[in-house]
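Dear colleague,

As promised, here are the two records you asked about, laid out in our usual form so they can be pasted straight into your sheet.

NAME FIELD: protein one
SEQUENCE, THEN STRUCTURE:
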Amino acid sequence: MTTIADIKKNVEGKMDQSIEALKNNLSKIRTGRANPALLDAVQVEYYGSMVPLSQVANVALLDARTISVQPWEKGMGAKIEKAIRESDLGLNPASMGDLIRVPMPPMSEERRKEMTKLVRNEGEAAKIAVRNLRRDGNEAVKKLVKDKTASEDDQKRAEADIQKFTDKHVATIDQLVAAKEQEVMAV
C-alpha cells in the first residue's frame, strides 16, 4: 500500500538523484582549468576491448593547467595518447618517457560562450526532470484520493510539499548552473 509519505519520499529522492546527475554532467564540461574528471569519458583500447582511461592509468593534476596520465603498463602510452587526441575534447597530449602530460589550452571567448550554452542546456534538462517528477508525484497522490485511500485535504498538503521540493531543487540547479557558468567564463 503506497502512502502519501512514500510518494513524497520517493519524489524527493529522485529529485536528489537529478541534482547528482547534473553535478556529474557539469564536472565533465571543460573550463579553462585542468580537471582529471575531464578524461573520464576517454576510452582506451586494452587487449582488444575498450575500457575507461582510469582503468589503465593513474590520472592526476600536475598544476592548474596540466593533467598527468601515468600508464600502469609499459607500451600503453601510445594508445592512451591516441585515445586522448581522438576524443572530442580538443586536447593535445605530449609524452615524456612514461608520463603523459595533457596541457589545457586556453579557451577562446567563442568557445567559452559555447560551453556556457552547454551548461545552461544541462541545467534546463535537470529542471525538466525535476518538473516531470513533480507531475508524477502529484498524479500518484491524485490516484490515492480517487481510490479513497487519502482525503482531498491530504492531497492539497502533499501537492504543496511536492511543490516545495520542486522549488528547492530548481533553486539548487540554478545555483549549480550559475557557479559553473562563472567558472567557464573566468579567464
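NAME FIELD: protein two
SEQUENCE, THEN STRUCTURE:
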Amino acid sequence: MQGHNIAFISNHQTEADPAVVALLLEATHPHIAEKMTYVAGDRVITDPLSKPFSMGRNLLCVYSKKHMYDIPELAEMKRKLI
C-alpha cells in the first residue's frame, strides 16, 4: 500500500488510542506507527491522565465550542485557533 492514504477511525472510551495503536503497529509496521496522525479533542493535551498517551505523537487537536470554557484560562487561546 505504498503511496496510498489510509483512514483508521477509532470510536474510543479512553484517550489511550494513540499509544495503543502505535505500540501494536511498532513491531510489524514501524513506518506506519511513526507517520500516523491522530485527531482528538483538547482533552488529550489538558487532562493530566490523558496527556501522557498523546505525547510524542503527531496530533491534530480539535477544540469543541461546547467545551470552550471548561478551563477559562485557555478559552482565549482556543478561540484564536478556531
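A couple of things worth noting about protein two: The first strand starts at residue 37 and ends at 41. The radius of gyration is 14 Å.

Best,
R.
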